[in-house]
Amino acid sequence: MPVPESAVVHPLVLLSVVDHYNRVARDTKKRVVGLLLGEHSKGRVDITNSFAVPYEEDDRDPSIWFLDHSYLESMFQMFKKVNAREKVVGWYSTGPRLREADQDITELMTNYCDTPLLVICEVQPKEMGLPTTAYYATDAIREDGTQKSQKVFVNIPTEIGATEAEEIGVEHLLRDVKDATVSTLAAEVSTLAAGLSGLKSRLLQIQEYLSLVIGGKLPVNHDILYQLQDVFNLLPNLGIEELARSFAVQSNDMMLAIYLASLTRSVLALHNLIDNKEQRVYREKEASKATKEVKGPKGEQSSTDKKDDSSKKADGGEAAPHSNGNIDGPDSNGK
Q: 181 in a domain, yes or no?
């Protein structure tokens, strides 16, 4: 495998590393180690899969460590049966920094690939930014030739990439994790604040590095200075009044659209609340009206029965005196 120029870490690898750490070394100062699988093409390494490897090291003496070779080889053979395209591209560690035994472990990994990568995944990052850092080992020779060549780690750019299927899975996972009580505007503001915090930390690192170089504590690295110069050249010249006005107008238009969207969302929520309340009141009135209509005919029938009873009583009272007159009164002969 040629010298890698960049590394792309897929979401499945990050989830596997976090799960491995939570199962083995959570709430401890230990780190976990595993093997990375993927493909290498034109200097780019796609890390698509990984698996955990039993690993132990002595806290007092970092040079004493143990890695289960037999487990590593058996697991790799099983993974190879599932996907033969995936090959060993390196190994991972939860760091969070390089350690003394990393050179020896990397040398061991050369039995499985020519230029193994070391990817340090920070499961509990303290700063904003990508939680992964990739290195590969190379021979370094001092320019004055005073020392023999020795292995040193060289950092390469890393990024988080995913296939279409992985993107769909991550979206569903984030949909379940997302807090529905937080509005879209608040989420966007928090994202911007996190991005600015990460930018501030990177600028502080650049300032610290330049201060050490100026003080003579670090040697001058022309590659880093060229990259910093390119970054500063890409920055817009905000001293031009027209450009500053354009940025302000664009920012104001975007914020106005976000504000109007949030205002419309609030109005619609209030409208739905009021509409729901009106429907509830209307249903209660209809229910009470239907109850009165059901009770009404029974009351009329009872009043009619009362009228019939009173009429019957009245008829009975008039008939009684008539019959008594026929009985007690004189007949037609005067008797």
A: no
Task: Provide the domain count of the chain.
Answer: 1
Whether 4 is in a domain gets the answer yes
Instruction: Please name every residue paired with 120 in a beta bridge, in sequence order, or none if there are none.
Output: 93, 133
- How do residues 20-38 score in pLDDT, each as one tens digit? 999 998 888 889 999 999 9
Distances (CA, A) of 212 to 97, 153, 198, 233, 331: 21, 21, 21, 23, 149
The pTM (predicted TM-score) of the whole model is 0.59
Bridge partners (DSSP) listed for residue 153: 137
Six-digit token string for 246: 């354009």
Among residues 112, 136, 105, 131, the alpha carbon closest in space to that of 120 is found at 131
Domain encompassing residue 63: 1-165
Ramachandran angles phi, psi of 50, nearest 5°: -160, 165
Residue 12 lies in a domain: yes
Residues 6+ apart with CB under 8 A from 16: 34, 49, 50, 51, 52
Exposure string of 21-31, with b = 16+ CB inside 10 Å and e = fewer, is beebeeeeeeb
Q: Are 270 and 264 in contact (CB under 8 A)?
A: no
For residue 41, give the CATH number of its domain. Answer: 3.40.140.10
In a domain? residue 53: yes
b/e 249-277 (16+ beta carbons within 10 angstroms → b): eeeeeeeeeeeeeeeeeeeeeeeeeeeee
**125 and 135 Cβ atoms separated by less than 8 Å:** no
**List of residues 6+ apart from 108 with CB closer than 8 A:** 67
Task: Please state, in angstroms and rounded to a whole number, the distance separating the CA atoms of residues 116 and 107.
Answer: 8
79-120 per-position pLDDT tens digit:
989 888 899 999 999 988 888 889 999 999 999 998 999 999
Of 74, 108, 85, the closest CA to residue 38 belongs to: 85
